[in-house]
Amino acid sequence: MAGVGGRAPLGFKRWLSSSAPAPRVCVVGSGPAGFYTAQHILKHHGRARVDIYEKLPVPFGLVRFGVAPDHPEVKNVINAFTQTARSERCAYYGNVTVGRDITVAELRQAYHAVVLSYGAEDNRVLGIPGENLSGVYSARAFVGWYNGLPENRDLKPDLSCETALILGHGNVALDIARILLSPLHLLRKTDITDSSLAALACSKVKRVWLVGRRGPLQVAFTIKELREMINLPGARPVLNPADFTGLENAIKDAPRPRKRLTELLIKTALEKPGEKMMEAQAAAVQAAAPREWGLKFQRSPQEVLPTADGRRARGIRMALTRLEGLGDSAKAVPTGDMEELECGLVLSSIGYRSLPLDAAVPFDTQRGVIPNTSGRVEGVPGLYCSGWVKRGPTGVIITTMNDSFDTAQSVLEDLQLGVLDMSTSREGFGAVESILHSRGVRPVSFSDWEKIDAAEVARGKAAGKPREKIVDPQEMLRLIGH
To answer: Does the pTM exceed 0.85?
Structure first.
């Protein structure tokens, strides 16, 4: 077995001794962090048993509720997670909210090790006047709405304006822009929810600005997402050439991904229409595009401006900034100049944020993470964390995979080195089940989820989609006879 993060592989002999009780591990959260942690422990310990708890009836976290509907290939990891969940040494218990239905202390009594992998269920706030006006939404809520996250199913965003403004230059911001401007015939073939598709069909939005505090060299989105946006049918990019002049020199020594990304931005901004015949045709198609999107740089939101009745957003006031420092560490400093931009829809895509789960778990409110070393929660032996709650809400699925394997390796090492008390067997779900029963909580099993899954796929097939997500947890529970 290869070591993770440069750590040496461990010997197996002590683990496979049948006289010692089988390690019982509990994972809280069934997104990529939870499943990758479980997968690694099961693969590298022949006797460990892992139970995964999830507050929703349905598993897979942000793979189901965060990945854009038009990126089905990213959701293929669900196949591997399903294999893990079907393992005879793994069990899934949905519809259980840790911290409310059962405490972390109670889980620690029932298991030898508890891993917290519950992600980031909140968003960072702008902290500016007008943030709570109608027409202002967090990216997290908007993505949850079109992806069928139960808590966002009643969002009903107002799409009656022509101009939308997204604050942020990350992949989530580009996802939202793409969904707002995509032709309906493309979205109809995805697993986007029926109600959000109906709302987008009536949308008047035809222009989307993506605004960032820093410059083109600091954008956080990746080249794949940018290319998709540039090639989006029926929408043309509007980039100000002045933002990109002279950048060729600045990226000479930049890392290759940053260099390629910036070169694509420069090419898109500076391209002269009609240089070649093919390009002339492309330019004609783009000029006729009914919708457009653009990037605005070095602007920091100061206030969402209200309509005359004080209820709705009508625009945003931004401070112009200049950059101090170079590259990723450059800081945006206000110049003193201001600018106003009219828009009836404001989407804040400035990052997700984890919340504390339980008073018994240490939490760094400044950084929004559980303090830890290689996933070991500081000061609480036997308690671990992985994913966004461990390192902060950054990176893609593969980042979370490596991070989760690292935490799983810490659990395996602590089992091997006798750090965890293995002197007595733990009841695992046997103990938890009686506590949940006494509190009127009925967990959802993985085979229950497979019934929900089959129903969604059948409904989708009727509509020519991969699935039609059920967005009401009560309907999910009725479907499985709860």
So the answer is: yes
